[in-house]
Amino acid sequence: MTGRPFSLDQTLNTLAAWLLALMWILPLVYAVWTAIHPGAYEARFVLTAPLTADNFIAAWNAAPFARYFLNTFLLVTLILAGQFLLCTLAAYAFARFTFPGRSILFTLVLLQLLVMPDILIVENYKTMRLLDLVDTIPAIALPYIASGFGIFLLRQTFLTIPRELDEAARIEGASVLGILWRVYIPLAKPTYLAYGLVSVSHHWNNFLWPLIVTNSEETRPVTVGLSIFSAIDSGIEWSVINAATLMTTAPLLIAFLLFQRQFVQSFMRAGIK
Amino acid sequence: MTSHRSVRFRRDWIHGWLLLLPAMVFLFAFTHIPAITTIINSFYSTPRGRREAKFLGLTNYERLLDDAVFWKVLGNNLWFALGTIPMSVALAIVMALWVNDKMAGRGFLRMAFFTPTVLPLIAVANIWLFFYTPGFGLIDQLTSSLFGWSSVNWLGDPATALNAVIVVTVWKEAGFFMIFYLAALQAIPVTLTEAARIEGASRWTIFWRITFPLMMPTTLFVSINAVINSFRLVDHIFILTDGGPDNASSLLLFYIYETAFRFWETGYGATLTVVLLLLLSLMAIGQFFLFDRRVHYK
Amino acid sequence: MKHTLLKAVATTALTFGTWASAHAVDLQFYFPVAVGGAAAETIQSLTDEYVAANPDVTIDAVYTGSYQDTVAKVITAARGGNPPQLSVILSVDMFTLIDEDLIMPFDDYLPGEEGKAWLDGFYPAFMENSQTGGKTYGIPFQRSTPVLYWNKEAFKDAGLDPETPPATWDEMVEYGQKLVKKDASGNVTRWGVRIPSSGFPYWLFQGLTTENDVILANADGNKTNFDDPKVVEALQYMVDLSGKYGVMAPGIIEWGATPKAFFEGQTAMMWTSTGNLTNVRTNAPFEFGVAMLPANKRRGAPTGGGNFYLLKGATDEQAQAAVDFVKWITAPQQSAKWTMATGYVAPRAETWETDTMKAYAADFPPVLVARDQLEHAVAELSTYQNQRVTSIFNDALAAAITGQKDPEAALKDAQSKADAILAEYR
Predict the structure, then answer these.
(1) Close Cβ partners of A98 (under 8 Å, ≥ 6 residues apart)
(2) pLDDT at position A82
(3) Looking at chain C, which residues constitute the CATH 3.40.190.10 domain(s)?
(4) Which element (helix H / strand E) includes A94?
(5) How many angstroms separate the CA of residue B108 from the nearest CA in chain A?
(6) Which residues are registered as beta bridge partners of C58?
(7) pLDDT at C291 over 90
(8) Euclidean distance between CA atoms A119 and A132, whole angstroms
(9) Do C36 and A215 touch (CB under 8 A)?
(10) How far apart are CA B33 and CA B11, in angstroms?
(11) Which residue in A217, A220, A233 is closest to C34 by CB distance?
(12) In chain A, which residue's Cα lies nearest the Cα of C200?
């Protein structure tokens, strides 16, 4: 702000930005408010309201959130590992090899950008039943492991890498996979980071497919756990539900807030712009 | 063509296919084959108990045409797309411009805009439910104490229910899209905008003449995401309205879920899914056309 | 695989009769929970207690989430050839489960007079949803019914007798009009009554239809009476509560937010499940009362909740063991524990005669209201293709409540849609 003269335009913009930001953060503020105050203050906003940790204790005791959390963690790890592996190999094939059927196959990959597994819930459920995988964590993960978006993104990045680099590696005697490992993957790090962010935030929050394909505590991710926890016959207890929400999303929230600058930079370098 | 070259070529083929194999197996197993079996199953009845699925021809499609709920849900989904896509993209651009500017409290602003991305929609839907509750809900408390308005039943009135759902969706999406625009803005050379500024161009002109055109690829990418989300994001509906009142806030995917997993009518569910596939394919064709012309990815 | 193994075990057991009696019977039992944490723990501990006392049976009790998750899991497991032998599922899912060919009647395992006497020990209102075609497919377990809660302070404030709840529809309107409070600018700050209509409006609405002396579906589950003039009249009354009489907030009223609205004093009366008794008792910052739903042509209310079902695929030995377990867990001592932990209505009269229940009722008399109301209660709306038919009915109710259609047109429409679906089951 230094050195710039006062301008009405700038002031109005700042004001509007702050107003919008306050609106945007309001749900989180409300979640914190209800979580740390007794239930009677869910709809009463007085500064003298007593503080309490009871809601967190109640939520923790009411449902196996530690287990749900572990399930989500395993799920996201499995998906991310699978996506990185499969998408890298496929992107490398599209970027650097010529073979019959390449353009048709690439079109089929791009098709998945729009026809994503989320809408094929009926058939994918049947497939999982056929594979006897219903109510397992792999069943939640498998439909997402080959990602059209991931393949497309990595292919774009690999195409920008000069061919001279991989010729040089080839002359040094590196194998096909060796070149991928030593030349392409290191140079595509920002893309992996950016794609990882998108993927983690998507699958951490995913709800419909896990809701359908899981049935037990041992497999349910946090999202499904939260929905079951809040869908009971008696009334909604916002204080306890919000305490549970905060508990289960805090790690991701904190991680994203700490690293947001790096994320933006990785997006920039990855060329997702 | 020398024999050496053809060996190289054939090796390339094999390498290419092998590298592609694992990804294609999964893509076919969970996207392409299910898409095709969906189409096949849309011509069959739902198997129940001892009764096997039987071929019905176009019966499911005739039912679709007569299904008032289907048409309502389809209309809702188009309104939902119209309400969410332009709004969330426009807000994302504005947010990115603000956050990219040297504005007071920029760190806080960025955090505030970004938090919805990390909070699961299914969880925050409960919070929005409170905001929308007539009487003691936050919106009613604010409007009645500030302006003396009477209470509004946002989610319980067919006239406002879908729009209330749209607001939650925009809130959820805009911050996520902002990150992409932020990356795009930071990649625009400062010299470009500075030069324009020195020549006396207003911020408005700079934005429309320089910034916006340079962000075109991002806008395309973000719009694709927004289009997909407008058919995919139904999580909050489970909590907020359950599709009601009288299907006023139900969307296509939510209706598919209801049909297949609440009514256990997988046959008709497949027919509904075919419509969704058709809509998305139409959009895919449109998008590829745009991709090819405006952005040279190939 | 496991299935064939079980068969092999069963065959072996039959061949070596003496060995069979020494071998433990393995049972798997799915149960949902719809009222928070204590319920799941109670079922688990009751099951453990039974297994400890009966070493020849092992029971694997699996908590399967909500009712909807549970029925999904049972259908899935059965199609995969590995169903549990016993499960608690919504009583209204009976016809769906018969249609899916998943359940078998209890009668074969409840022989003679003794079996009949045991079945007769359940409240008839609960058995209506459990029997069809002369067979018993469900044993009532976690069952509830809606009641009226009223805020005594609000009654006092409005100049009404705080100890007298409305007994008829007319009284509910009359009291409601006195209870409605407006601020200086004419905005309502307290409504008279609140009948939630989100999600599954048919359930509470069925209170009104029963009071108007009409049944929504026949006992065979293949014919509905949605467009009966008495149903139309009941819906008109519900619509008028917000419109003509102005005692209820307009539009769809959220089920989940209803107790909170009651605690906040935004409504002086509410209709909701007995499953909320413990919640209201803990959280209401004022004195409250619990009453039967008000009468019109008669008293009336629906029942709700889940039954035990016996699943196909169980061997005779397993089925018998499962029935023995059901008999034990619905017996007075166990049933009393269950009712006190959850607020569900104990389904057998003898349970209410135990000392523990008597002491509990003396301490908290409102629990008796639900029991007394059972005498007037009817089966919850249940048909073949139940989810779809009720969903059609719900849409019609929502359309009328939000003023999109007039009650008669909405219900006529719903009836013709339901007829189209149910025709094949007649």
Answers:
(1) B9, B12, B13, B16
(2) 96
(3) 2-144+305-378, 146-303+382-425
(4) helix A65-96
(5) 8
(6) C26
(7) yes
(8) 21
(9) no
(10) 29
(11) A233
(12) A233
Q: Topology of A63-270 in CATH?
A: MetI-like fold (1.10.3720)
Closest by CA position to B173, among listed B255, B81, B97, B99: B81
Q: Is B112 inside any structural domain? A: yes
Residue C223: predicted pLDDT: 94
Task: Please say if the pLDDT value at position C162 is more than 90.
Answer: yes
Whether B178 maps to a domain, the answer reads yes
CB distance A36 to A55 below 8 Å: yes
- Answer with the residue of higher pLDDT: C159 or A259: C159
pLDDT tens digit sequence for B170-205: 999 999 899 889 888 888 888 888 888 888 888 888
pLDDT at C37: 52
Tell me whether residue B101 is in a domain.
yes
CATH of residue B277: 1.10.3720.10
Over the range C14-24, which residues count as b (16 or more CB within 10 Å of their CB) and which as e? eeeeeeeeeee
Residue B42 within any structural domain of the chain: no
Query: Which of A204-213, B23-32, B42-51, B148-157 is the most confident on average?
Result: B23-32
Please indicate whether residue A58 or residue C33 has the higher confidence score (pLDDT). A58
**Mean pLDDT to the nearest integer, C319-330:** 94
**Range(s) of the domain holding residue B111:** 68-294
How many CB contacts within 8 angstroms connect chain A with chain C?
66
> Domain total for chain B?
1
Residue of B nearest to A111 (CA): B284
Q: With CB atoms and an 8 Å threshold, state whether B261 touches C385.
A: no
> In chain B, which among 263-282 make CB contacts under 8 A with chain C?
263-265
Chain A residues 206-265 with CB within 8 Å of chain B: 207-208, 212, 222-223, 226-227, 230, 236, 238, 241-242, 244-245, 248-249, 252-253, 256-257, 260, 263-265
Q: Provide the CATH number for the domain formed by C146-303+382-425 in this structure.
A: 3.40.190.10
How close C262 comes to chain A (CA, Å)? 10
Confidence band (pLDDT; 50, 70, 90) for B4? low
Q: Which is nearest to C64 in space by CA: C46, C45, C90?
A: C90
Contact between chains at C260 and B136 (C-beta distance less than 8 A): yes
* Amino acid found at A220: R
Nearest to B215 by CA among B294, B135, B129: B294
> Which of A229-238, B146-155, C249-258 shows the lowest mean pLDDT across its residues?
A229-238
Domain residue ranges of chain A, discontinuous segments joined by +: 8-52, 63-270
Tell me, what's the ipTM?
A: 0.86
Question: What angle is formed at CA C301 by the lines to CA C299 and CA C304, rounded to 5 degrees?
Answer: 160
Whose tokens are 């395993």? That residue is: A74
The sign of the torsion formed by the CA atoms of B142, B143, B149, B152 equals negative
Burial (Cβ within 10 Å: 0-12, 13-18, ≥19) of residue C159: exposed
C57-63 and C25-31 as β-strands: parallel, antiparallel, unpaired?
parallel
In the predicted model, is pLDDT for residue C164 greater than 90? yes
Higher-scoring residue by pLDDT: B81, C35: B81
Give me the mean pLDDT over the A153-172 stretch.
88
pLDDT value of residue A4? 52
Measured CA to CA, the distance from residue C151 to residue C286 in angstroms comes to 7
pLDDT tens, position by position, C63-83: 777 787 788 778 877 876 778
Q: What pLDDT is attached to residue B96?
A: 92
Per-residue pLDDT band at B90 (split at 50, 70, 90): very high
B261 contacts A272? CB cut-off 8 A: no
Residue A25 CA to residue B127 CA, distance in Å, equals 12
> Taking CB atoms and an 8 Å limit, are B218 and A273 in contact across chains?
yes
Contact yes or no for B30 and A24 at CB 8 A: no
How far is A216 from chain B, CA to nearest CA, in Å?
A: 17
C2-144+305-378: CATH topology is D-Maltodextrin-Binding Protein; domain 2 (3.40.190)
